[in-house]
Design a protein that fits this description.
Elements: E1 6-9, E2 16-19, H1 22-27, E3 36-40, E4 43-47, H2 50-58
Antiparallel strand pairs: 1-2, 3-4
The structure holds zinc ion.
Length: 66
C-alpha cells in the first residue's frame, strides 16, 4: 500500500500540517492534521484550527499571496 503524504501550510498562521495520510483520515485526531478546510476560487485551503478558518472566511484575500 502506498501512502502519499503532502504538507500544507495554514494560510492564516503558517503552521505546517500533513494531509493525504490514511491514518490521519481514519483517526482524525492525529497531531498536525488539518482540522478544517475551506474552498475559495476553486482551490482548497487547509487550516489547523476552526478559528483560522473563520478568519480566512471573513477576508480570504488577506491571506492569499498571488
Ligand atoms: Zn492556522
Amino acid at each position: 500500500m502506498n501512502e502519499e503524504r503532502q504538507t500544507v501550510k495554514c494560510p492564516v498562521c503558517s503552521r505546517e500540517m500533513e494531509v493525504g495520510s490514511q491514518v490521519a483520515k481514519l483517526y482524525g485526531a492525529v497531531r498536525s492534521a488539518p482540522r478544517a478546510t475551506s474552498a475559495y476560487e476553486g482551490k482548497d485551503y487547509y487550516f489547523d484550527s476552526k478559528a483560522c478558518k473563520k478568519e480566512f472566511d471573513e477576508s480570504p484575500e488577506q491571506f492569499i499571496k498571488k
